[in-house]
Design brief:
- By secondary structure, this protein is an alpha/beta fold.
- The protein has two domains: 246 residues, Rossmann fold (3-Layer(aba) Sandwich); 186 residues, Adenine-n6-DNA-methyltransferase TaqI, Chain A, domain 2.
- It has 16 helices and 20 strands.
- β1, α4 and β2 form a beta-alpha-beta unit.
- The protein is elongated, with a radius of gyration of 27 Å.
Length: 543
């Protein structure tokens, strides 16, 4: 595989094309204050951003790191001393490397830095050349030996090639003692070249960001540290289980930092994902975890809690969801909900994804309900805890033809609880449950769209009182708050709902008897009714 090493001397600019900053424009080095370095790189970042294809950036999750966020990431390393071998995969213009160098100069104790950056966008690559030259000059002025390697290549392909080194001709593995990452956020197709490469080294994941982090973990030397900023989506769900296993089996999770707002980490890029910054130690002994939250990266006084690891990853949860509990109030919520006595299987209940994938049965969809059709329920039909069907003039069909092709897609008509699998970013609640009742139509079977989840009893309808109790329970504020502790995105997967703990059958039935009609009570009344469950002494779970 072709790989290009570009070594900079301490003052040479060889290889930089049209540098944005000429040598005589660099600020003089001042011991103890290197903030100008990161500010210069931030100017390079902003200039480069204007030249990039904005549509492509958005589609591929290409978000460059602002100065304050880069500085925050660099601050999370435990130790910057001696010799540093640094990996910055998806380096952009070098903001994260600049932040690490800035901290190393400020604190002293670093003798040598070998910085390796991967970047395959030509515009960013040109700017990265300029940045590395500036880092060489600045490091030299502070008596730090500086060497840098820039790989204008695919990080996934390169890392897999190294990790598979089994022959004389194979690329030897380069080990790092520090990795700092802001990887791209982009889905990987199950049939893609990247997916197949990752599988060759035992990594099963569906997003570039988790692939980058998993590979960086495997390239770290024992005791090496990794700091990354990524979406929170890896904290739960079945798609990231393999990634969570690598993270939790091969490293110790030491620090987590979250922001109160989705947009604060990447202000200029209008990022809507919920982001998390985390610090890992390869092969470290797992101890307590430091969890901090703040309004933005610039906040000098985050709210910080140090919690035992079992509060972050419940050892009883086989999915190994990562809970981020940022306050004592949230911790109290976690204790209450996780302390409920029953799992869904204990109750004899199940939750599944709707069976109807509309584009696969397009010929059987109908806008209107007729004699030979049955109701087809989409997320659009779920309104304020109820099912509004049919919707006249809507974009989605209201019915599905009942025939031999669709029989397997139906469920018996009856009482079910439905949730949307995807919620809008602006919605206040992540978890909203709707009550489906058999009186919706005089039919024997109904269809639920694949973008819904439905609670059932081994494929059959729910007991009415249990369903109504479940309806109130899932719509309570405390359950929504708990759900958000491990669900950092807008998806509500059936696996997430299975991971919840639930009240007993008797408690759900008693709760259900307090409801009437198909309209949810007020939020205040729901919370008052559900709170009584947490005040009562938990009984053993019985079906």
């Amino acid at each position: 595989m072709f790989q290009l090493f570009i070594l900079y001397s301490l003052v040479t600019l060889a290889g930089a094309d049209n540098p944005i900053i000429q040598p005589n424009q660099w600020p003089p080095a001042t011991h103890g204050d290197t903030r100008d370095l990161l500010h210069i790189i931030d100017d390079i970042r902003q200039e480069a951003a204007l030249k990039l294809d904005q549509t492509r950036r958005s589609e591929q999750g290409q978000y460059m790191t602002p100065a304050a966020t880069a500085e925050l990431l660099a601050s999370l390393f435990d130790d910057l001393s001696g010799d540093i071998s640094l990996l910055d995969a998806g380096a952009g213009v070098g903001s994260l490397t600049a932040a690490l160098l800035q901290r190393a100069i400020r604190e002293g104790g670093v003798k040598k830095i070998i910085a390796t950056g991967y970047e395959n966008d030509q515009i960013l690559l040109n700017k990265l050349h300029d940045s590395m030259a500036l880092f060489a000059k600045t490091a030299g002025e502070h008596h730090i030996q500086w060497h840098s390697n820039i790989f204008p290549s695919d990080f996934i392909a390169s890392a897999v090639n190294q990790l598979q080194a089994t022959s004389v001709d194979a690329t030897p593995i380069t080990r790092y003692n520090k990795a700092i990452l802001n990887p791209p956020y982009f889905k990987i197709s199950s049939q893609s070249h990247h997916r197949k490469l990752l599988q060759r080294v035992g990594i099963e994941t569906g997003n570039l960001y988790s692939a980058f982090v998993a590979l960086a973990i495997k390239l770290l030397e024992p005791g090496g540290e990794l700091v990354a900023i990524t979406p929170r989506s890896f904290c739960n769900g079945p798609y990231f289980k393999g990634f969570r296993d690598i993270l939790l089996d091969e490293t110790a999770l030491r620090k987590i930092r979250v922001f109160d707002s989705r947009t604060k980490a990447f202000k200029s890029d209008k990022v809507l994902q919920e982001n998390v910054i985390f610090h890992l130690v390869k092969g470290g002994s797992q101890g307590d975890v430091e969890i901090s939250s703040s309004s933005c990266a610039e906040n000098p006084n985050p709210v910080t809690r140090v919690v035992p690891f079992h509060e972050v990853v419940n050892p009883a949860n086989p999915e190994r969801f990562i809970h981020i509990v940022t306050s004592e109030q949230a911790a109290d919520t976690a204790v209450k909900v996780s302390g409920l006595p029953c799992s869904l299987s204990d109750l004899g209940l199940e939750v599944s994804t709707g069976k109807v994938v509309d584009f696969r049965t397009r010929n059987n969809l109908r806008m209107k309900h007729e004699a030979y059709t049955v109701p087809l329920i989409y997320p659009a039909h779920l309104k304020n805890g109820s099912v509004l069907w049919p919707i006249t003039g809507g974009k989605k069909p209201n019915a599905l033809i009942n025939n031999s092709e669709t029989t397997k897609l139906m469920v018996p008509n009856g009482t079910y609880i439905l949730t949307k699998r995807l919620t809008a970013k602006e919605e206040k609640r992540r978890l909203v449950a709707s009550l489906f009742e058999p009186s919706i139509a005089d039919v024997n079977v109904v269809g639920f769209d694949n973008k819904t989840n439905y609670f059932h009893t081994q494929g059959k309808p729910l007991d009415t009182d249990i369903a109504r109790g479940l309806w109130l329970f899932l719509n309570s504020t405390i359950v929504d708050q708990y759900f958000r502790q491990f669900n950092g995105h807008t998806q509500v997967n059936a696996t997430d709902l299975r991971s919840l703990r639930y009240p007993t059958v008797e408690q759900l039935q008693a709760l259900g008897l307090k409801t009437q009609g198909n309209t949810l009570p007020s939020q205040e009344d729901i919370d008052a009714l559900v709170s009584a469950i947490f005040r009562s002494r938990n009984q053993p779970c019985r079906m």
